[in-house]
């Protein structure tokens, strides 16, 4: 939704293979179908990613590096705010993990 969906739509409109990295399979698939319909680009795909989970970030990065011949643009747009204090299963504060640590790790893993 929001800025991320607008950026993905613009990239797809420019004929880019576009990977939507979403926590929710249901919402992500709905966005994929909407973007495909709006742009006519069938190369819009969904991959599940929760930036609040470093294990999820590592699995996502590993799959992208294995499956994609190249990566030209990365847009880190995920974020949360206003959540009650919570600790992830990895012992990290949820907001800090989601908004900073996850995207930082993802970027570094994808740089190769």
Automatic annotation (TrEMBL):
Keywords: Oxidoreductase. It comes from the Eukaryota. GO terms for molecular function: oxidoreductase activity. InterPro entries: NAD(P)-bd_dom_sf, SDR_fam. It holds the Pfam family adh_short. Belongs to the short-chain dehydrogenases/reductases (SDR) family. PANTHER family: PHOSPHATIDYLINOSITOL-GLYCAN BIOSYNTHESIS CLASS F PROTEIN-RELATED (PTHR43157), RETINOL DEHYDROGENASE 11-LIKE (PTHR43157:SF30). This is RDH11 dehydrogenase. It comes from Rhadina sibilatrix. The gene is Rdh11.
């Amino acid at each position: 939704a929001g800025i991320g969906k607008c950026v993905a739509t613009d990239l797809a409109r420019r004929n880019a293979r576009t990977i939507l990295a979403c926590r929710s399979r249901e919402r992500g698939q709905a966005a994929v179908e909407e973007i495909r319909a709006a742009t006519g680009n069938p190369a819009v795909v969904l991959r599940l990613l929760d930036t609040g989970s470093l294990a999820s970030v590592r699995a996502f990065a590993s799959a992208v590096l294995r499956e994609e011949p190249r990566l030209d643009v990365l847009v880190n747009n995920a974020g949360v705010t206003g959540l009650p204090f919570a600790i992830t299963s990895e012992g990290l504060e949820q907001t800090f993990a989601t908004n900073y640590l996850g995207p930082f790790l993802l970027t570094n893993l994808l740089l190769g």
